[in-house]
Amino acid sequence: TVGASLALAQPAQAQALVSNIPGAVVLERILVKVNGGLVTQSDLERVQINALRARGTPPQTDAELQRVIEEITPDLIVNAVEELLLVQRGRDLGYSLSDEDFQDILDDIKETNNMNDEQLVAALQSDEGMTLPELRDVMERQRLVSATTQVEVLARISITDIEAREYYDTHLEEFTNPATVTLREILIAVPAEGGALNAARDNQAKAAAAAARARVLAGDDFGQVASEVSDAGSQANGGFIGPIALADLAESVREQIEVLEVGAVGQLERTTAGYQILKLVSATQPTPDPFDDVRQSILDNFFDEQRRRALDEYLIKLRDEAIIEWKDEGLKRLYDEALANRNSTGG
What we know:
By secondary structure, the protein is of the alpha+beta class. It has helices at 11-18, 41-54, 62-92, 99-113, 117-128, 132-152, 161-170, 195-217, 222-229, 251-258, 291-321, 329-344, and strands at residues 30-34, 37-40, 176-177, 180-189, 240-245, 269-270, 274-284, 287-288, 324-326. The model is unreliable at 1-27 (pLDDT under 50).
C-alpha cells in the first residue's frame, strides 16, 4: 500500500553511507550480473532503505546507521540475487503481469486509500520515491516470485496425516500441558528489622499464623480466614492463587505442595516475608492435548518447515545453474559469507 514515509532520522544519510560498504560507490553501478540480469547500486540502496524502514525505530546516529547497514547488507544482497533468479524463472515459465492485472492493483490502492489518479501518483512520489512504471516493475517482480514459488516449490509439497501422527508421537512433550496447582495462602508478615524488637514481632507473627491455621483446621473457611488476617496480596480474594504451573513455583513451595493431598492444609512455614500457610485447592497432572486438537497446527508447522527446506533446495539448484558475474569483490565476499552462515545455521 501507499502511505508510510521513510522512517529514518536522516533519510539521505542512508544512501550516502551505503557508499562506505565494499564496492557500493557509484549510483547505478552494476554490482552483479545474474544470467544477464542486473543488480545495481540503486537496487541495493532501495532494499537497504526498505529494510531500515521495517526495523521500526530509526538509527539515531551516523555510527549506528552505518553499523545497521553493514549488518543487514549481506542478507540483502543474497535476497536480491535470489529474487532475480526467481523472476527469471517465472518469465521462463510464461508468467507476467498484464495491463488489466496492474490496473486492478491500482484501483485497489486508490479505493483503499480514497485517492484519485493524481493523488496516487503524488503519493507514490512523495512517500515511496516511485513512479507508476517503477511500481509496475515491483508488482510484476512480486507476481513472478509468488507464481514461481507456488508452482515450482509449494505445489510439490504434501503432508499426510500419517506423518503428522508420527511427529505427534515422537514430540509428545511439545503438546503436553504442564502440571498445575491452585492454592490458597495466608501470610502473616514480619517486618525486616533487626534486634530484640524484631524477635518480638517475629514471635507475634508466628503466634498469629498458628492461630489462623488452628481456625482453619477446626473448620473455619480458609478463604474467609485469609480475607480477615492475611498480609499477602491475595488477601483481597481469599488467598486464592492459580492455577499456576508447578514448575514455576519456588522450590521450597513446591516441596510443601508435593506432599499435600487436594484439600489439605500445609504446615506453618517461615519465609523471607513472614509466616505462611498453604492449602492445596486442586492439582492437574501433565496432560497431552489430543492429536485431533493439534493436528492442524502440526500440519501447518510441518508444511512450513518443508516449504523452507524445499525453497532452499530450489534456490540452490537455480544458483548452481546460473551464470553469476560479480562486478564487486567486496560484495561477493559478503554474499559468500551470508550463504555460508545460512548453511551453517540451517537457513
